[in-house]
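Input chain follows. Return structure tokens only.
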Amino acid sequence: MQPLQPVSAADLQAFLDTPEQLLQQPTELQLAVANYIETPRSLLEVLVNSTDSQVSQAASLHVNYAGEITDNWQKAVDAILQQQELGQNDRLAVELLKLGTVPPCFFSEWVPAEKLIPGLRNPHIPLKYRLQLLERLAQEPTLEPRLQVAESPETPLAVLEQLAGDLELPIRLAVKFNPSCPPSLIELVEGQYTVASDWNTDAEQLAMLAQSRWAWIRLAVAQNPCATAETFMQLAGDSVYKIQLAVAKNPETPAPVLAVLAQHQNQTIQATVTEHLNATEEILHQLFTTQQQLLKRRENLPTSILERLFNEGVRDNYLFLRQPHTPTWILAELANVDLEALIVAKRAKHTHLPLPEVFEKWIRDDIRFLVDVAKHPQVSVEILEHLIQYPHPYIKLAIAQNSLIDPAKKIELLEELVKAGERDVLKLIAADAQTPVAILEQIVEQESPQNKFRFKLRRLLTRNPEADNRESVADFCMDAIRKILTPYQISIDVEEWFNLIESYQWTTLLENYTYVGDLKGRYRQDKSFYEQVNEEWKQFLPTISESERQKIITNILEIPDTLVDVVKDDRTVAVALVGNPSLPVPLREKLQKQLTRPLEKLNSYENDCDMRMALAYNLQVPEAERKEYFQQLLSTNWNDIPETIARNPNTPPEIINQLMTRPGVGRQAVSRNPHAPASALAELAQDTNNATRNWVAENPGTPINILLQLVKQPLEKTNNNVANIRENVIKNPHLPARERHRILLAMEEEQEITEAHQLMARRADSPYALAQVLEKGDRNAKITAARSHKTPIQVLQQLAKDADETVRSVVAENANLPLSNLLELTQDSSLNVRAGLARKRLHKQTSVEVLQRLANDESAQIRAQVAANTDTPEELLRNLANDSNKEV
């Protein structure tokens, strides 16, 4: 719609004596007269008969024709609205509102609030109509309409009183700085909020404040953990959603109140109740249908919920095995794996099957979850006995280590595992203090260098080259020998070959883990040994040609030395035995002798750090001796040694304190030790390294007072969504629920302030808002204001003096910033600010005065940027061409 034609009282004089002439005038003039506030009734009586519907409607609704706003007037408006399409009338009214007089009652309830806001700035709207608009907009659920009302100096006191306790911070601030708002109102509201949010306020006062007419006050009570169950119940029924959600989040909300909130239609409130620590078994059943995914993430689910999940078809092994209350009958169902069917199904999925050992690993991976079944606190003896059938060493180990299993069966399973010799399994058995001494003795015997050599040699001779993986160079040597023998159709007699090759091993006198042999060197240098070996293999393989036999001998002599190296390097099981406090002292000393390597001057103890580490943590070793091992370990040049010691929860406090005096990874790693002394964690909580402080925040052993100190530290920027320190403190299991609630409330308040400042930074026509940004705004809010071309010049000038160089850099790019301020910024202490001024702007000419100042800058980098700026005058460029710096 086109703007209304302007008219005045003088324009009406021509029609006062002959009103009918108005109907002969253009429609635009008729419409303007019909909307003019001073048009007399005599002219309106003519215009109501206009052939133009807009003119007749405007005249009939004019206050001088229809009278003051009364019930009868409202009925008249309703009658008109019912005669035509509502949307058309609303659009007409909205357009008229921009320039003419439209009573608020003309608008239907469906007119969007943003369409009514322009009426507040319409000079033709009488004050009483504007007041009615203000009252209507004050009831809108969205922020902007209420904010317009809160900022208007015409807003009645009754409406300001209503908005003074609004839930939105921008509205409360707008009311606070509204010139029509009495300071006593703000003091009253803020005073009540202070009491309502104080966790020391008595329950009676909180109950009274829970009935406040201001939602902000009721919200503070809903967030206060000291409120009574009755108060929580009352607020759970509040009409404001945010207050109901606050009750659901409060850690002290009792179960009966949560039960009421669990019936809420809002999914967020239901989800919050689902995660609440006070939610009872009955409440969880109540939420089962809608919140099943959240239920699955809860810890310590009741048995009945787990049974309901299982009965409804949930087959999540991880879910049931991590829950301590999973009933035995569900564990029995999980343990009932049809191995043959699994193998058939696995084969059916793949058209090309891998090597047998790879396929076997697939099957083992698929049934690995049975290990957790065997370890579950609700597992039965019957289930353990059933699990024994599965060919998986870790399943058998878990069964053997379960206290329910019969001791004789335990020994039988452990002996079977020891005989199988799988290294990782052996290491776990050797390290377990509950392993029977008899089993430990068997492992010690099996772990002697000679026996390990025999075990690996026999495996080498019996290995299927097409199915089994290669473990060392010895396997390649044996494969080469088999390749030579194949054309001769000679098979390997395992026992004969074993005895012959082992005899060479004995010749090398392998006695411990420090041996380094060289049979091939001896074969070349020792004539008698050379003749002995050649004669033995000539008799052993008489049909092989001499050249082929030499190739076999070369590979044969490589095998013992290679296997000895494998034995020497494979110390993990022996080291685990040394660290086991249940191992008899004579056996420990025997192993210690075998594992000890000669000291070297430049890197003392580094050759056998693994053994010394195990002894340092073995409580059966005398304390003085253990302390000496720690000192030996800390004297090495390996950085991972101090880190490993620092993170070990069994490290003595005096060693931790020693690490704290040494800079580096060891000191930092103390922050991850759950048993670290409080004094050490307190010191590390103040460390300059952000990662170190984060580890302290995550550490379950960090005392509460240190966690709370970490929360108060300034926030730092994070990259790639890395959690900041506060978030890690919130996740710390040692943090009490109330303190977690307090931190979350503080974070919500900070977020609210940040968003409010961002909003105010965009309100260039609100002086109070920009004043708040200048006084209390964060960097982002100031940058928003500095970047906006609507921001008043005086505000830009203040931002040009801000302490933050980023803010100064941004405001320097604002085209509205006066030249005088730009010239001041050419002397700015920040190189980045001056560099921004020197660079060519995309849509703005760089001031010559600015370029002249910067051409004499002390920094060659700035002068070079001036030279590169296409706006730089030719004369200035000639001067810069003689600059002493080549880059310029």
